[in-house]
Amino acid sequence: xxxxxxxxxxxxxxxxxxxxxxxxxxxxxxxxxxxxxxxxxxxxxxxxxxxxxxxxxxxxxxxxxxxxxxxxxxxxxxxxxxxxxxxxxxxxxxxxxxxxxxxxxxxxxxxxxxxxxxxxxxxxxxxxxxxxxxxxxxxxxxxxxxxxxxxxxxxxxxxxxxxxxxxxxxxxxxxxxxxxxxxx
Length: 184
Hints:
Layout: H1 2-8, E1 13-16, H2 38-41, E2 43-50, E3 58-61, E4 64-67, E5 69-77, E6 81-86, E7 95-100, E8 103-106, E9 108-109, H3 113-124, E10 126-127, E11 135-140, E12 143-148, E13 154-160, E14 165-170, E15 175-179
């Protein structure tokens, strides 16, 4: 419910593989993955596998190629669109990332998540002129996201909705999300 409310107000949600599959007692739900996020994500998991050490799998998204590691899911899009696909083996051409409105479902694990998430977010944002050379500011409807791309803290003050706490600086390589009516 909170994710739907957030995205209905213009926020972007990225849901990762295996999300929504278990209940609060760590029992598997009797529904196809991504479980409780299926309608929100606009897709379901059609097939899953672990990657043997000798095998390779990649995804292609926006002309870029990223390696997949350990585990991946072939997605069946029900609503929305396919944003990325697998390039190797049985799952070649099958959906790796599905988008439904402002919700993305990423059906794999890899070391390059930060780059992939950044690429996803940048496609959705209207960017403003930076407050600091290392600080990126993005408008998300009724929210603003600040991304510190530098190796030093940047002094700002506000309430971070991600951590649900007050902040007086953005840590190196940190991210904060604030409501627009929140003064910074």
